[in-house]
Amino acid sequence: MNPVIPLSVLELVPVSEGMARSTAFDHTRTLAADVDRLGYKRLWVAEHHGSTTFMASASSVVLADLAHHTERIRLGSGGVMLPNHAPLMVAEYYGTLATLYGDRFDLGIGRAPGTDPMTAAALRRGEPDLNSFASDVVAIIDLLGEPRSLPGGVRAIPGEGTNVPVWMLGSSTGGAQVAAALGLPYSFASHFAPQQIREALQVYREHFQADVRTAQVDRPTVMAGANVIIADTQAEAERLFTTSQQMRVHLRTGQLGPLLPPVDDLSTVIPEAALQFAGRPDERATFVGTAQTVHDRLSEFVEEHSLDEVIVTTYTFDPQHRRESYDALAQVWGLPG
Predict the structure, then answer these.
(1) What InterPro entries does its record include (predicted)?
(2) Residues 162-180: pLDDT tens digits?
(3) Exposure pattern of 246-273 as b/e (b: 16+ CB <10 Å)?
(4) How many helices (H) does the chain have, and how many strands (E)?
(5) Radius of gyration of the chain (CA)
(6) Average pLDDT value for residue range 11-16
(7) Which of 25, 106, 27, 36 lies closest to 71 in space, CA to CA?
(8) Nearest Cα residue to 217 out of 174, 187, 191
(9) So what CATH class is 7-239+285-333?
């Protein structure tokens, strides 16, 4: 049976070949209104820099725009890559969003730079170790909490008193340790790094602290990422998935660029030596096929890892196919839209 848990959407504002960058934002606005109507719980925007594939570098700005085009769905970062930002600035940005639009925002925080080393260096923050990263997360929680000043009289204005919910993101046991120690809900990036999901969730659940002052939830709370493409037939879904496969290869081999059209045979567009990076439609956190097939496999994924929520991402060359896939998933899952 389908464990009735919420589904959410992860959005990176992808650009397809031949598409103007401004048009990519138009399609994201339309998608946001769609998933809001369909009953998805959250729409998170992931921060990426220096990418010609994704336009989500200024995620808080994108979220402010999407707030104008949605009514119910929670919006948030999936996430803010903390090595790129001072904690005070993060608290100010997301405190401003909460002040403008009310309690509709989540603040997902991650440790990765979200870009290549040269661009990361240009962002001028560096890569903190686990302890300093955890200290920065605590500072953000404090700045968003009840009005008080940090040492030196530092305050987040606006921001203080908004209590924007904080999530910890991760793709390994490092983020799981921080999430457990601080009592935060945990979102695991299984959509691109499923290898350590079992180990990371075990660490998180075994070491979770509900009685620390930073705790945001009273029990371990887990969201996991999944890649989904639904079409009328298995063959058509797998063909649409070749756009995502080409994207994966290009990301792994440094060939950044817009999403490419689907193909009938990947070997005609990808060298044999690079096919290993393409991924398969039957991977652990990738669900490609008809609505019922995806429903059944996604339900097994939820049950296997005792998930509280799934955040779904879908890449297709034609934005209409992406919208149709989210629509079909909402219907087969039974979302309350």
Answers:
(1) Bact_Lucif_Oxidored, CmoO-like, Luciferase-like_dom, Luciferase-like_sf
(2) 999 999 999 989 999 999 9
(3) bbbbbeeeeeeebbbebeeebeeebeee
(4) 10, 9
(5) 19
(6) 97
(7) 36
(8) 187
(9) alpha beta
